[in-house]
Known about the structure:
The protein is α+β, with helices and mostly antiparallel strands. It has one domain. Helices cover about 30% and strands about 25% of the residues. The chain has helices at about 1-25, 30-45, 60-65, 125-135, and strands spanning about 70, 90, 110-115, 120-125, 140-145, 155-160, 165-170, 175-180. A five-stranded mixed sheet has the order 1-2-3-4-6. It is elongated and about 85 Å long.
Amino acid sequence: MKRGYRNLILFLLGIAILGYLIAKLVAPISLLGIWNDVDRAKQQSELRKTDDVRAVPKDVLELRRRHHLRHLAESEDGRKIQDVPNGIFGFSRCGVPSLSANRNHLSSLEIHKHDDGIVYYVGYTSEDHLNKYLTRQKNFHLSVYPRPVERAPLLFEIPVDFVFKCQQRAFEEEYLFDLFVTAIPEYKE
């Protein structure tokens, strides 16, 4: 009798292992990945301090309109930049590890992904810093603010690929972003 139960348990265990292996081959799904996605969604909902309640500046709205960008959908929230379609805008932090549909205290830098797939940091800087970029200097630093401030009233965008280092530091209720650029590639026509 004991031998029958032991054989039955071994048989069921063998079926369970076989089922697991077949499921892994047919539909490779990562339970850990699903668990992390759920955790990330919970964290993002908890971290949303504000839903960008302050008005969006008109120049940012014009830039979005000019490039035909749509807002990142809630269903796309938290995805990596390469996993979202072209023609969107969202919010992130240095390095653009993922995009957020809403500006919050962690993801306060606006990111644009144009129709051609090029990803841009968008923010405000000073005239001196903007001139360094526009004159194509080498080895320079830009201080970028997510909103216009007295010392940085000018809106600009710079491709993420031009920036070799990005650092963020606390500034009032948000972050200030320091972008370091070594060289801006020449345009090839």
